[in-house]
Specification:
homodimer, about 280 residues, alpha/beta, Cobalt-precorrin-4 Transmethylase, domain 1, Methyltransferase, Cobalt-precorrin-4 Transmethylase, Domain 2, 2 domains, 5-stranded parallel beta sheet, 5-stranded mixed beta sheet, about 35% helix, elongated
């Protein structure tokens, strides 16, 4: 395959640090620009722990890049980033990062540290679950309010925020993107677990935010060759076979006619589950 | 360059409609998965009017794809989508779309129409300005509230929403992503024009939302080889040389310490402009 991809600018100057987004799910989410800039680098590092990349083939990635990237663990970036920056002081260094490179604070911090040392920094954006989940739901991006993460149960103080965020967004007719937690062993929360947690909370608190009939959109493996997008009531989705992670949820607010159509035809929502939500024609 | 990119699933079944995200700025934003799925299609269509792709080289794209995509104009998708769907009833059709395919309502509608006709639909996500602008600002994605578009002046009723959205988000400490309008001749609003419009509105309405010292982040040509990200006061950014479009704005809410560092080191904010905003340590 032939392709031309210009990379004309500042990062041509050595030394530099280039943060390259790997996109979602596997190595095929990489953009042509990301590929080119990693191939041009003297050293390629990769971390795959800030986002779960289930089907990533390290050997295929090495094939694509023409060399084997050096794997980083959490400690390398969070406690010992100086080592990478030493390389970037003397040569062109690419760090491959799942999703979009600056969505995670860890990489913002790395970029800031590099700048403080006078190192040139460039970023090649990647597909992020933030925009991909929103778009694949068929819901309109400008109608999303604040997003939130649902953590595994670890005591009450962790609990209130996600429910409060959904309630506040709903009160304004806005949709909520809800990330599902990953625990310290790297286990991702499933949609079934998340909805059980939510209904459990609602049964205790009785705030009336989540009913068994409440409309929700579940999304699994977005960006892969076998994504699942399914809209329905909480009751329906609790047992729906979404398959392996990563999973993510969206709680819709008020629906525009076109959004209703999208949930019906692209996410298989039944008429009944759509009835549970108020919707505005415009 | 060798690469392997599996595409195992439903879309192998003919016929189908595959919406492929082109990402930002030029053809090099395409992902390997997007490239593979377009090359596998019997017919490739492309539209480039829902997002501005300043450096897109049609001939380079044709080279990469191994065939010349058929250009679509607005009417082809909005009034005459039946023609594309006729192809998709009989063969594998890829439609290349700037950014992420389902962020624009036009393509959601196309996907819904296809499904109604029983056509298999697949989506290959692309880099969207939604996530890329948020991440490149160095601000934390979960602290963004509702986003909004600033339209060209066309009478008062169009005006209130963007200011109201920024005001409401700020009141809750949330950041606001503000898209800048494109007029019917395809001219994109610049950051300078946008800030002039905003200060003009503030001078008339005196709501106290925007002061000359108010912190704002301007972003130009995100996803290209020569992006500009600059944070500063409205007064500073009104005359800052951002270069050609596309431009986009972010109005920060409350800043975390790390966000403050990011604006300082990655977006060149002066200490003075950062002082104008309240910030919380966590």
């Amino acid at each position: 395959m032939r392709y031309e991809c210009s990379w004309r600018v500042d990062v041509q100057k050595l030394p530099c640090l280039i943060l390259v987004g790997l996109g979602l799910h596997d190595e095929c989410g990489l953009t042509l620009r990301g590929l080119k800039s990693a191939r041009d680098a003297d050293h390629i590092f990769i971390e795959t722990y800030t986002n779960y990349m289930p089907d990533m083939s390290f050997s295929n990635l090495s094939n694509i890049l023409g060399k084997e990237p050096i794997k980083l663990i959490r400690k390398d970036l969070e406690e010992d980033s100086g080592r990478i920056l030493e390389y970037a002081k003397k040569s062109k260094v690419a760090v491959l990062v799942p999703g979009d490179p600056l969505i995670a604070t860890t990489h913002v911090q790395l970029a800031v540290e590099a700048k403080k040392l006078g190192i040139e920094v460039a970023v090649v954006p990647g597909v992020s679950i933030l925009s991909a989940a929103i778009s694949q739901s068929g819901l309109q991006s400008y109608k999303f309010g604040k997003s939130v993460t649902l953590p595994f149960a670890r005591g009450r103080q962790f609990f209130e925020t996600p429910f409060e965020v959904v309630r506040e967004n709903k009160a304004k007719g806005l949709h909520t993107l809800m990330y599902l937690d990953v625990d310290c062993e790297g286990r991702s929360m499933s949609i079934g677990e998340a909805l059980a947690l939510i209904m459990n909370w609602e049964e205790t608190e009785r705030k009336g935010v989540f009913l068994p009939s409440t409309l929700v959109v579940g999304l699994a493996r977005i960006g892969s060759d076998h994504p699942v997008v399914k809209a329905g009531s909480i009751e329906e989705l609790r047992t729906y076979p979404f398959g392996p992670p990563p999973h993510i949820l969206i709680f819709p607010g008020r629906l525009h006619f076109m959004e209703r159509e999208a949930l019906r035809y692209l996410a298989g929502a039944s008429e009944e589950s759509l009835e549970s939500i108020s919707w505005a024609k415009k």
